[in-house]
Amino acid sequence: MSTTNLAAFLSQGAVDPRLGELVLAVAEGCVAINGHVRRGALGQAMGALGSENVQGEVQQKLDVLSNDVLLEGCAKATGLCAMASEEMDTIHPVREVGAEGGYLLLFDPLDGSSNIAVNVSIGTIFSILPTPKDSYGRAAAEADFLQPGRQQVAAGYVVYGPQTQMVLTLGAGVSAFTLDPDSGDWVMTAADIRIPAETKEFAINTANTRHWAAPVSRYVEECLAGVEGPRGKDFNMRWVASMVADVHRVMSRGGVFMYPWDKREPDRPGKLRLMYEANPMALLVEQAGGGSFDGQGETLDAKVTSLHQRASVMLGSAAEIARLRAYHAS
Ligand code: AHM
Ligand code: MG
Predict the structure, then answer these.
(1) Average pLDDT over residues 231-235
(2) pLDDT computed for residue 262 by the predictor
(3) Ligand 1 mutation pick, 202, 271, 281, max ligand atoms within 8 A of CB
(4) CA torsion, points 302, 304, 306, 311, in degrees to nearest 10?
């Protein structure tokens, strides 16, 4: 096991020091969030707030607390120009974009909110975009954020599970860091993570079976048919209902994670949000040799029209995503 810590990893030659500083600020914020998560009912962070976010979801105390931690902690990163979050209607400006450009940070501060009360793994998801050239010398605007996921210069998540781990890409491979509870250091515990191409596991909320589109139904039915079916092997189904935990399992041992479009709200592309859920996860999965698909094309190429845009999400092992893509095409 390597003992490279996150700060040393980020200070390697090719990484822009201001990007490294920003990722470290996110990581520090996540240490603070981790503290609140670990204290649970012993602290002040459990329960609902009574307010709703821009998506009309009831906010938990931990959602808002985590958002505040990241807003305050990341603002000190000198290259950061503005932030956006699942929990805020509009962007949070930090400083004007300098002559050499800067960064935009997006996050879902506390993913898997429905699992807070039941002590099941939850997480933080983040995405970092460059400021567009035409923003240099002025304050960043919301329109500056509306870049396809392909433009991300970094993406990651932290899972608050039995261990607290950060999985990170700077656009060239994926590494994992485990938070050492004694030293408070993020210690590199996996480098060049590769998602196995083949799998026997899928993750989807099967309570929505009757609402699915035909290609998704076909895919799941074939998995369920097991060794007697067209796949010729038995599958396992897993659904934590925290995207971070479900994607972390895919990262660790392969599989496919789906929250696809369904017929409940035909005009809504999906439940999950493109910019701070689907895109960062899609970049991580792609960098680990997997694939992503939104029912039409690759998630990372999806056109972005609004900050809180929803997306149909299918990601994981390359062969499974290719199969889902083929089913959607036929
Ligand atoms: P959140 O960001 O408000 O926590 O919502 C996103 C979560 C994902 O983590 C998870 O995959 C999904 O919602 C679970 O949805 P459902 O309860 O419909 O299964
Ligand atoms: Mg979320």
Answers:
(1) 97
(2) 96
(3) 271
(4) 10
